[in-house]
Design goal:
It contains nine helices and no strands. With about 250 residues, the chain is mostly helical. α4 runs antiparallel to α8.
């Protein structure tokens, strides 16, 4: 028997038993107090209040529980995203951005500081969504990227398999784009600058994954700035778009 059928059957049995118990209690009340009119009156009173009870339970309480459940899911998702960028995301982004020909145009738009506001992150996301990221691949740099991204393969696959991410489509799409780049690189034994069509194909894959990763990085920075200022301060100093940034705080 299907598990759902067993659950439905169990629920039906519980409903029937509770209904029977209620009928027995009302019958005992009539027998002992011999006031069927009063029993009927209070029974109708209970039925009159039933729609209000349903409204309170299903609408008010239900809405509260859904919001609380959603907040808990978002918290779990944010923990996963934080782990991703701490373990692999920032490092991979630093590697991908090396392929960008217009890095100097992108960097100023993502130069977040301690005083950055929510509107600054929103502006950065809109800029990235429309930005024309120009990527050029070289055999030597692809070899370096291949080694770095493959070293994170087990971690990336583990992140994708996490069921909590099913509700975060954009982050999941970004992970899939990164994994596709990884698979493309792993499928090749070597790279050659002479294979221009192949280089152009890999460039398109890197462009897609880099744009998605940049957008998720901005959202990650927005979250840290709002919830964990001390972590945000570190990430500002680690900004992968600026090679001259120093993690150490100097006078």
């Amino acid at each position: 028997m299907d598990i759902h059928m067993r659950k439905d059957r169990s629920s039906l049995i519980v409903v029937l038993l509770l209904t029977l118990l209620s009928a027995i209690i009302y019958t005992v009340q009539i027998i002992f107090f011999r006031e069927p009119r009063d029993t009927t009156f209070y029974l109708l009173q209970d039925f009159a209040f039933l729609p209000l009870q349903i409204a309170i339970v299903t609408v008010v309480l239900g809405t509260y529980l859904k919001k609380r459940e959603k907040a808990e899911r978002l918290k779990k998702i944010n923990v996963i995203i934080n782990a991703f960028f701490s373990e692999a995301g920032t490092e991979i982004l630093a590697s991908l951005i090396m392929f960008s020909r217009n890095r100097d145009d992108i960097s100023p738009e993502l130069d977040f500081q301690s005083g950055s506001k929510d509107i600054d992150f929103s502006r950065a996301v809109r800029y990235l969504e429309k930005a024309d990221l120009q990527v050029t691949c070289k055999a030597e740099t692809l070899e370096s990227l291949k080694g770095r991204i493959i070293s994170k393969r087990a971690f990336l696959i583990g992140i994708i398999e996490n069921p909590n991410l099913l509700e975060h489509d954009t982050f999941t799409d970004m992970l899939l784009a990164l994994c596709h780049v990884m698979e493309e690189l792993m499928a090749r034994q070597e790279f050659s600058d002479e294979h221009r069509a192949d280089m152009a194909h890999i460039s398109n894959d890197i462009t897609r994954s880099m744009k998605a990763l940049l957008i998720q990085w901005v959202e990650y920075m927005r979250h840290l700035q709002a919830e964990y200022p001390y972590l945000y301060s570190l990430e500002v100093r680690k900004n992968p778009l600026f090679q001259d940034r120093c993690v150490e705080i100097r006078d």
